[in-house]
Structure formats: C-alpha cells, structure tokens
Amino acid sequence: DVYKRQVRHRAEEAAFERVLDTLLPRPRTVGFANEPPPADHSVTRQKMRERLLKGDLDDREIEIEVAVRPVGVEIMAPPGMEEMTNQLQSLFQNLTSNRTRSRKLKVKDALKLLQEEEAAKMVNEEELKLKALAAVEQNGIVFIDEIDKVAKRGEYGGPDVSREGVQRDLLPLVEGCTISTKYGMVRSDHILFIASGAFHLAKPSDLIPELQGRLPIRVELSALSSEDFVRILTEPDASLTEQYAALLETEAVKLEFAADGVQRIAEIACHVNERTENIGARRLHTVMERLLEVISFEAPDRAGQTVTVDRAYVDGHLGELVKDEDLTRYIL
Question: Which of 91, 120, 299, 309 is the most buried (most CB within 10 A)?
Fold first, then answer.
C-alpha cells in the first residue's frame, strides 16, 4: 500500500488516459507512426478530459478491458519440498496472469478499478519482496500467545508428550534458523519473539529448559484496574459503548452513556474479576449484555426515546446481582 500511494498520481493519470481512449478512441494513422493526431481530435480530447475531471461523465456506462486476477492454487507437499511447492504455485498463477476480460462499469467505478490496476503495474514486485524480507529479518516481531497451553502439567502423561513436542518445534525458530516462505528464505536470527500466557495451571518453569533459556526476560503484568476498563469503554474506535449505541439506533432508540455510568460499569467489572475468575476485559461483554438486556428486548416498543445510562441506572440493573456471589459467578 505504501508503494501504491507513492505512484498514485501517475496511476490516476494512466487511468484517465485509458478511460479517455474508451470514450474517444484515437484515430488510426495511415502514414508514419510518429505523426501527430489531427488538431480537431486533440481539442475534442481536451474537452472530454475537462468534463471527466469535473465529474460530468461519472454516471455514463463504458466497457473496459481489465486484468483477470490469478487464481490461487493451494498445493500440499511433504516437509522439505516447500521450494517445489512455491514454484508450482507460481506456475499456475502465471497461466492466468496476462488474461483480460471486458466489463461494463460506470465511469467513476471504472476509474477506481483502473487506478488500482495501473498502480499494481507500476510497483516493482521483486524489489518490494526483497525490501519486505529485509524488514522482516531485521525488524520482525513474532508474538506467541497462550504459551502456557504447551507447558507440561505433570511428570508423565499422553497430552504432555505432545505439548513438549510443540515446544521443541518452536525451539529452532526462536534460536534462529532459515525458514522457507512463498516470498523467499527468511532468517529468524534477529527476529524478536514475545510469548505470553496466563499460567493458571502451569508455571513458566514447566517449559522445557532450552525454550526458557531463549526467553530470558520475564515480566508479570498487573490486573486491569477500573481506570483501565474506563479507557477500554471510551477510547478505542468502535468501543463497546459505541457498538451498543449503534445497535439500538437501528430501532430508533438513542442510547447515551454518562461519565458516572461508565465509571460504575468499570468498577463492577473490576470487582467481579477480583471475586471470581479474572478474565480481563472480556468481563465487559457479559456485564454490558446483562446491563442492556431489558432495553434491547424492549427497543422496538420504545422507538424515539432516549435512554441515559448513568450510575443510578447501572446500580438499578446490576446492584443486587453483584452482591450475590453465586449469581455473579454464573451470570456475570
């Protein structure tokens, strides 16, 4: 995308020329190839270009030739034959790389499609692959989540054998090796590996010693506080509060969250996490669902109304439920 943005202006110009050629085909030259086109044709083409730039022709339908996207072919091969697999995939993709087909589109839609096609032509794929491989090798970060799930939980047992096998498969990647990808060979020597896990049933010391040695820095994260929950509910794009407001807006119900209401929701989520199992920010989903259960059910009958979720509203719907630990455990 970065490379496409760099050639965007040239791609737009090329797309305009292709649309102009469709709207006003160039006259065939009978004499020498370098003869200029007739003067009247150049004037007409310039007028057509101005109308195209103004958007006067956006709704006009034209027929253009566009490239057919290569069909992706997935080939399964045994370990050690990845290079041959990549070559076969490239072969099948090249079979359809130069094919085109006609499509009827409005001018504004055709311009967008042709701009993407022209930008893709101007990007040097080989140079892009080389720079991407170099960036991965020098600045790559691999995040391995839930590493605790592959830690052994006893001296012996069936599942523990397979867990240890997964760790030994990860070991050469973390230590540094050459990996075959469809874009080329990648060295993992300078790639940063970060692993995380809850470690409720296992300990970091339950990992095999070799893997522990390759992950020398250990950091323990503190639990989310009520302030963190407030930020999660308000700061991200498409946060939970925005999602529920948009959902009820489809039923013509305006849902507003007061600051003290958001604070109370955060306090309840934090309190439930402390008293029961700490599942982090996932607790907000169950709390919000229970809080807005009634209004979601009654929304079709309350069209045109405005509902404000403040501290009193939250206490009225969740206050008694939070006090009962048994109900909290199974409902929230």
Answer: 309
